[in-house]
Amino acid sequence: MAKRPVATSSDDELPFETEEPVADERSFFGVRPQKPAAPNARTALPASLLGPEHYHGHRERLRDRFRELGDTALADYEILELLLFRLIPRRDTKPIAKALIERFGSLSGVFGAPAALLTEVKGVGEAVALDLKLISTVAHRTLKSELRSKQVLSSWSSVIQYCHAAMAHETREQFRILFLDKRNVLIADEVQGRGTVDHTPVYPREVVKRALELSATAIILVHNHPSGDPTPSRADIDMTKVIIEAAKALDIAVHDHIIIGKDGHVSLKGLKLI
């Protein structure tokens, strides 16, 4: 700090008085200290004093709509969002639900997707993917249990719903057989083979052998087309006819062969191809 002398009448040592500081040339080249950024309004407060996140009110409103009006008042992504409230309690789940529907095309597509693909969506971890697959399994088992207590041929819509839920979104072909007793009640539902995206090896001899082991008197053949188009190929038709001939020799009826696609199904019997 610079000082300047004050004139007096004596020859004593000059006293000094303090003045405003004189700027030092170093201050012109030095880095001036930056003003600290203002703290975020929420992070500046203790967690115990923070109010609810913005999406909490939205959650309550969505629950109220579902409670009062049922699922018909909600879009598919909102139904999924309601479910994700339970699985992801501390995040805004609306963008996650929308991203899942966009990636997999529909609500059924989300539940049918492999867990590994679900985790590729931002916000979906391994635990959430596993929970979604568990819910999907519960739905499949519910549909299957309904079939067990009914005559399958008189509950055809239930058969289609079950097969669609179980197979429509598989990424590889599956060949499934529904084994029926003499009253056409379901004895067993088994996947006999898994193949590639467009082919599953099927062995008529093994199909008939398994039907005899289960004492089945009739079967329904089912397989999926991962491409989404359920139109039967020439190979599908020919293979079905071979199984029908092999089963007929042992008094086992083949009621139908159903092909499942993502957006529908085809019955070979309905097309009069068998």
UniProtKB/TrEMBL annotation:
<dbReference type="InterPro" id="IPR025657">
    <property type="entry name" value="RadC_JAB"/>
</dbReference>
<comment type="similarity">
    <text>Belongs to the UPF0758 family.</text>
</comment>
<feature type="compositionally biased region" description="Acidic residues">
    <location>
        <begin position="10"/>
        <end position="22"/>
    </location>
</feature>
<protein>
    <submittedName>
        <fullName>DNA repair protein RadC</fullName>
    </submittedName>
</protein>
<keyword id="KW-0378">Hydrolase</keyword>
<dbReference type="GO" id="GO:0008237">
    <property type="term" value="F:metallopeptidase activity"/>
</dbReference>
<feature type="region of interest" description="Disordered">
    <location>
        <begin position="1"/>
        <end position="25"/>
    </location>
</feature>
<dbReference type="Pfam" id="PF04002">
    <property type="entry name" value="RadC"/>
</dbReference>
<dbReference type="InterPro" id="IPR001405">
    <property type="entry name" value="UPF0758"/>
</dbReference>
<dbReference type="InterPro" id="IPR010994">
    <property type="entry name" value="RuvA_2-like"/>
</dbReference>
<dbReference type="InterPro" id="IPR037518">
    <property type="entry name" value="MPN"/>
</dbReference>
<keyword id="KW-0645">Protease</keyword>
<dbReference type="InterPro" id="IPR020891">
    <property type="entry name" value="UPF0758_CS"/>
</dbReference>
<keyword id="KW-0862">Zinc</keyword>
<keyword id="KW-0479">Metal-binding</keyword>
<feature type="domain" description="MPN">
    <location>
        <begin position="152"/>
        <end position="274"/>
    </location>
</feature>
<dbReference type="GO" id="GO:0046872">
    <property type="term" value="F:metal ion binding"/>
</dbReference>
<dbReference type="GO" id="GO:0006508">
    <property type="term" value="P:proteolysis"/>
</dbReference>
<keyword id="KW-0482">Metalloprotease</keyword>
